[in-house]
Amino acid sequence: MNTLFCSEYSRQIGEEIIGSATNYQTYILVECPQPWVSAAFKSKWVPDNLRVLVEEVKRAKLPIQFLLIANGQSHKVDYTTLLIYQKREGLSNGYCRQEYKLPNIEQVAGLVRKWLLGIASDYQVESNINRDILVCTHGSHDQCCAKHGNPFYFYATKTISNLHLDHIRLWKSTHFGGHRFAPTAIDLPEGRYYGLLDQDSFSSILIHSGDIQCLNKVYRGWGILPSALQILEREFIFAHGWDWFNYQVAGKILEQSLDNNTMLAELSFEQPGGAFYTYQAKLVKDEIKTQVVKSSCNATQELTVVKYAVANVWMVARKVATFANN
Fold it and tell me: Which domain holds residue 16?
């Protein structure tokens, strides 16, 4: 087995980063002070009732991602922040957020159980924050996230401060996949995943400005879309520029071959002015970019990661908004 860090190995073989975002319907983010052990929800500060709930959700195979989060204040505050991000149905630009401030972490499991049943809570709060960015620093799970994630988080805090982005909150997070692309991040409520980040690309992502081609290197994909479709969405980003981040989008795989080597994908989007478009595309397995990788520093076996290329794109529907004269 290669003794390189998994992130160094990934860089060395030139692994393509796009198509590595994971698709969840719900993110449940629980503020919990560090340290975090490798199996995050067995960490010291995680109460048994929360651990039991996470195991139940996992066994039921619900499309819910539980993560622990923390920032510089997490040891000092006398409340626990709970964030629930729920995927919007139909055309959307990501997730809707509910934020709760609880007296202590022991109350998280009870509130989440009620939330899953559709029961409202008195602990919900309004916030001037409209963006939560999670940086994986979970070094006990994979050492690349400590080696690359911690320094990135430190400088990212300064970057956000220097840009006076008071509406953006930065969190350290437990593992959410793709540690071989460390430093890696999720930008919520959009649900877009990034990796191999540096402060220049991070600044562009924060303000949706600058050279959009930086996404070629750092964009892992949009978590509201199936992984194979993420390569197609990136093509539309490059075609429309940063304006694309204001569009409402929906995508799906219409059909796929038995060997999964070819797929028919569909992507629909609505622009802020009301114009609506639907495109279809043929996706084919990219034999060159499909590689055998070391998926984590502790991996005992290598993993074949299939990548797709966009072979053909065509428009199937178009509706342009018309405005009546007064």
Answer: 6-221
Q: What is the pLDDT of residue 306?
A: 80
Burial label, 273 (beta-carbon count in 10 A; 0-12, 13-18, 19+): exposed
pLDDT in tens, 262-309: 999 999 999 999 999 999 999 999 887 766 665 555 655 677 778 889
Over the chain (326 residues), what is each successive 10-residue block's mean pLDDT? 52 74 96 90 94 97 96 87 96 96 96 95 92 83 66 94 96 86 94 95 97 95 94 97 97 94 97 96 86 58 79 94 56
Whether 100 and 81 have beta carbons less than 8 Å apart is answered as yes
Which CATH number characterizes residue 147's domain?
3.40.30.10
Q: Which two tokens stand for residue 205?
A: 């992502």
The reply to whether 283 falls in a domain is yes
Are 261 and 252 in contact by the 8 Å Cβ rule? The answer is no
Judgement on whether residues 189 and 234 belong to the same structural domain of the protein = no
Backbone φ and ψ for 291, nearest 5 degrees, come out as -135, 160
35 burial class (0-12, 13-18, 19+ CB within 10 angstroms)?
Answer: exposed
DSSP for 206-237, written as a single string: HHT-S-GGGHHHHEEEETTS-GGGHHHHHHHH
DSSP string, 287-300: TTT-EEE--STT-S
* Residue 142 and residue 10 in contact, taking contact as beta carbons nearer than 8 Å: no
Nearest to 249 by CA among 272, 220, 217: 272
**How far apart are alpha carbons 49 and 37 in whole angstroms?**
18
Final residue before a domain boundary, out of 197, 221, 245: 221
Tally the domains of the chain: 2
In this structure, the answer to whether residues 76 and 215 fall within a common structural domain is: yes
Looking at residue 73, what is its pLDDT? 85
Tokens of 67: 């993560």
Indicate if 217 and 231 belong to the same structural domain. no
Tell me phi and psi for residue 54, to 5 degrees.
-60, -40
The answer to the question of residue 106 being in a domain is yes
pTM for this one? 0.90
